[in-house]
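Re: the multi-chain job from yesterday

Posting the exact lines I submitted so nobody has to dig through the queue logs.
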Amino acid sequence: QQQVKQSPQSLIVQKGGISIINCAYENTAFDYFPWYQQFPGKGPALLIAIRPDVSEKKEGRFTISFNKSAKQFSLHIMDSQPGDSATYFCAAQAAGNKLTFGGGTRVLVKP
Amino acid sequence: DTEVTQTPKHLVMGMTNKKSLKCEQHMGHRAMYWYKQKAKKPPELMFVYSYEKLSINESVPSRFSPECPNSSLLNLHLHALQPEDSALYLCASSQDTTLIKLFFGSGTQLSVL
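And the result, structure tokens for all chains:
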């Protein structure tokens, strides 16, 4: 059972554009929502994370928006750059339990 | 040092071979993980060690055998693997398992012939 649904599966955006990736979850016990970025041949790396007590968190060009009532959260990449081309995974965790990953989104930023 | 080091980077083995994957971290993290990742898929949890004790085994076949010799090292022993076990094997660590902030290694790309 996929507890975190991620969309789209792939995304093409022009340099300077905004990339938007969405995730939805079912388990209301989830209280930690990280995003991971993975380049080819590398392991995933933690990009940014949010707890449900805030609706938005921004770090540089990366912003997480969180909607607790809709059980949805999203990653926005502002001013997308070719170096942002990677696969992005959302994830969710209930404290003390394992991390559950979404299916992943392959982002390609065209110059 | 915020690195998780995995060796080897690539491994080709036959179905009758025995091999081991190694992982090391020096961040003082007390939780270590093995994940399996197929192409275009998310990492799939295999094992979790917390304070050097196996705390999660995600029903992994016995041909995969984890070992945690100390708080910095994690091994995955492989024996009699199947071609469908070919994948990227990722080691990760986190400070603990309360709120998991994973630091991943670059993985071992395993091919089973």
